[in-house]
């Protein structure tokens, strides 16, 4: 991959040349400084004239490159080159909760870290494509999910039994065919209120039995008494008689 940078003779015969790189997160670094590739690029970048040649590029090389030329008398010029490395999508990683309760919140996620440009995402339920905006499709007007095609998140803010089904997602970009993850099942169950009430009742009965047991044991004297025991002080009898000293 070659990145070209040209300048006029007005900059002189040996102008100062630098290449800078800004990645997709706006982090900047030098590719060429003082006419030489920096240590992090020296193994795969060659400078010929004012141009750059990459022997190998990866997704991390996506971004904007700036060629800055400074002449001997102070002239300054800059050329901006945008580089997009094309990498087809890989099968994305999907996370789908297996069991959730009605009325709760569920987040289904999908991500492919390898594709470039960064892939976008579709979600399918029972083999049917879920529209990004369900309110615009007559068959999905009652749907409550929120789909973010850029980060792959499919959120259900208030689950219903109708949301149960088989889900998978698809990653796609302009570099190659789309890729899908394996199908995963999500079951929405009603909250077991009867079981919760029964559990609370059992816990209260256990507490009552414990209190009664402690009271009975204390009444029968099975527990050590908390009353302080009287202390006895022994004083030996005097060896002297009761007469007065001379």
UniProtKB/TrEMBL annotation:
InterPro entries linked to this entry: F11R (IPR042456), Ig-like_dom (IPR007110), Ig-like_dom_sf (IPR036179), Ig-like_fold (IPR013783), Ig_sub (IPR003599), Ig_sub2 (IPR003598), Ig_V-set (IPR013106)
Annotated localization: Cell junction, Tight junction; Cell membrane
Record field: transmembrane: 196-217
Membrane topology of this protein: Single-pass type I membrane protein
Pfam families noted in UniProt: Ig_3 (PF13927), V-set (PF07686)
Domain Ig-like: 1-84, 91-184
Region entry Disordered, spans: 226-246
Domain of life: Eukaryota
A Gene Ontology BP annotation from the UniProt entry: intestinal absorption
Gene3D superfamilies (alphabetical): Immunoglobulins
Key words of the record: Cell junction, Cell membrane, Disulfide bond, Glycoprotein, Immunoglobulin domain, Membrane, Phosphoprotein, Repeat, Signal, Tight junction, Transmembrane, Transmembrane helix
GO CC list: bicellular tight junction; plasma membrane
Similarity comment: family membership: Belongs to the immunoglobulin superfamily.
Subunit structure: Interacts with the ninth PDZ domain of MPDZ. Interacts with the first PDZ domain of PARD3. The association between PARD3 and PARD6B probably disrupts this interaction. Interacts with ITGAL (via I-domain). Interacts with CD151.
Official protein name in the record: Junctional adhesion molecule A
Source taxonomy: Eukaryota, Metazoa, Chordata, Craniata, Vertebrata
């Amino acid at each position: 991959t070659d990145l070209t940078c040209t300048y006029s003779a007005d900059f002189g015969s040996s102008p100062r040349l630098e290449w800078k790189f800004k990645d997709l997160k706006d982090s900047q670094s030098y590719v060429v400084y003082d006419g030489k590739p920096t240590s992090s690029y020296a193994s795969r970048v060659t400078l010929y004239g004012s141009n750059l040649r990459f022997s190998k590029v990866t997704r991390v090389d996506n971004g904007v490159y700036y060629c800055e030329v400074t002449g001997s008398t102070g002239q300054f010029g800059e050329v901006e080159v945008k580089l997009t490395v094309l990498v087809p999508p890989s099968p994305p990683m999907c996370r789908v909760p297996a069991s959730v309760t009605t009325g709760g919140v569920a987040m289904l996620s999908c991500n492919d870290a390898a594709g470039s440009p960064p892939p976008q995402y579709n979600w399918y339920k029972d083999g049917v494509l879920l529209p990004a905006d369900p309110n615009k499709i007559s068959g999905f007007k009652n749907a409550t999910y929120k789909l973010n095609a850029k980060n792959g998140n499919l959120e259900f803010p208030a689950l219903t039994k109708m949301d149960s089904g088989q889900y998978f997602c698809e990653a796609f970009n302009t570099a190659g065919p789309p890729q899908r993850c394996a199908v995963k099942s999500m079951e929405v169950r009603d909250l077991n209120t009867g079981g919760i009430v029964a559990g609370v009742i059992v816990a209260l009965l256990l507490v009552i039995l414990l209190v009664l047991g402690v009271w009975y044991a204390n009444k029968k004297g099975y527990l050590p008494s908390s009353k302080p025991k009287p202390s006895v002080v022994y004083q030996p009898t005097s060896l002297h008689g009761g007469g007065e000293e001379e």
